Amino acid sequence: MKKKHLIHTIILTLLALITLLPMLFMISNSFMSAKEAVNRYTDLVTPYNVWASEGNIHYYEVDVLPSYLSFETYVKAMNPTYLRMFWNSVLITVPILLGQLIISPLAAYGFEFITWKYKELLFFLYIIVMLLPIQLLLVPHYIAANLLHLNDTWWAIIIPAAFSPFGTFLLRQHLKGLDTTILDAARVEGENEWNVFRKVALPAMYPSLVALFALTFVECWNIVDQSIVFIKDVFNEPLSVYLARMVTAEPGKIFAAATIYMIPAILIFMLTNEYLIKGINLATGVQS
Amino acid sequence: MASIRLENISKVYDDEVHAVTDFSLHISDREFVVIVGPSGCGKSTMLRIIAGLEEASKGDIFFSDKKMNSIPSRQRNVSMVFQSYALFPHLNVFENIAFGLRARKESKKTIQTKVKEVSSLLGIEHLLRRRPKQLSGGEKQRVAMARALVRDADVYLLDEPLSNLDSQLRASLRSEIAMLHHTAQKTFVYVTHDYTEAMTLADRIVVMKDGVINQVGTPQEIFDCPANTFVAKFFGSPQMNFYECRHNDADVWAGIRAEDILIEERSVDDAIESEVLMIERLGHESLVHVCTEKGQFIIREKGKVPYEVGDRVYIKPISQAIHYFDRESGIRIS
Hints:
A: mainly alpha, about 70% helix, B: 5-stranded antiparallel beta sheet, about 35% strand
């Protein structure tokens, strides 16, 4: 049994390392000077990497550790354009999160506990929308945004994402495992349906709501396709799209820029870790 | 305070499952009525209909002559204890008990006083700051009772409140509930599948089977004069013994309780010869299982018995204690 446990630990540690390696690589390389980063990872032959070229072949001098520690790229990365894009990402993400966290619990409660005609049919359509890849949905979204004159505004991204069916699905799955007698108890105790939702169902959904918050945040923070389709003005782009542009435009700063970009997501994961796992377990029926 | 009048209540799910059929009953003010029956007999559905958590498919429900059919649960002023206790997991015990008072916009001072009063009545003052998951089964049950009793409700509904507890705790809480009813002087409707609870608590018992009332009466009436073979079997442990016989020139079922059979070592008039199959020695009494040509019988004897498994004995039902039931319908023949 102990031997089996040891093998499991080794395999899982290896897998975790493989997963973490790109992140570690990015963070450690962010402490290189811009010059070192450019010389190590650019195709251009410079006096610093001339040894790495043989005829037409050019080698990258990949290294985990920088030659010497430098915060130069962090200072350079935090330029006004970067901060503007960072703010753009915040302004896109926050309304989506608010929308999801308001709409999803209400919709999930309505689907699960209120009796109305065609609700299962509508829920089925919800699931279908959830299963379709975003690239497929972009066309109808684009047509709708055009009709509503929302193209080239963040609303074209925010509105469909705020109404995304995933949150409703996740929370409804959680509600399916809920002991419904607590709702009955609240009704008998004299509460109307809105208060039953607000005072009993909503607090019961808390772990799944936190999980939804974390998952939605990561999805919105990393939004790329929607922005490419809807946002034409480069100054309105979110940071996720700007990062891709930086790889070619400012390769020296990319590691520091990417590290800063990652911080909010990591912070949110660390803060919500406990509920994230519990919430997903509750919604998927692993835990009741 | 309220009396309850239920008139021809029926509940049908999805046009095919008949949970309750033609249920009519009048429950007087301050009465303790126990609805008893096996699982799935519709007793909990009936309670939920009274609470307003389910709508009756047919029939009318009145609280003190006021028709309640379309009145939502929150306006019926009923209190309910659920089988699973249904405590709000995110609130502590104090807030759980105060929930209904807050819903009724009672003042902070009133809430404090009432919660304190009821928690001292149920002996849970030391638990007020705890969350439900930090409580034992018995404590949860007390909190659920406190939440129900803290409000001045017209009717108190209890849905198998003791079924999740161990037998010792069940017995002690059973007597507490009886005392609470005595002190509170309110109308109680209690649902259970345990006949002992029904016998010890009820002013009147309603026996249900397959959604239909089989008998309504005081515990003694139900025990002494069961309306049919189902009621006769349901009330009493061990179950009433049944055997086929002729009575008034008709083939009938005869039923005799375990304590109404005498065991003789020698043959006497009308005694049935039998063989001892098993003896359950319970200390204060013994249950002797015997096999006869009329079938198996269980006989209750006080204290120890001198028999052993395999002994031949003669059993004699006390003729005045025999209940006769129609062979076809199972209905009592008076």
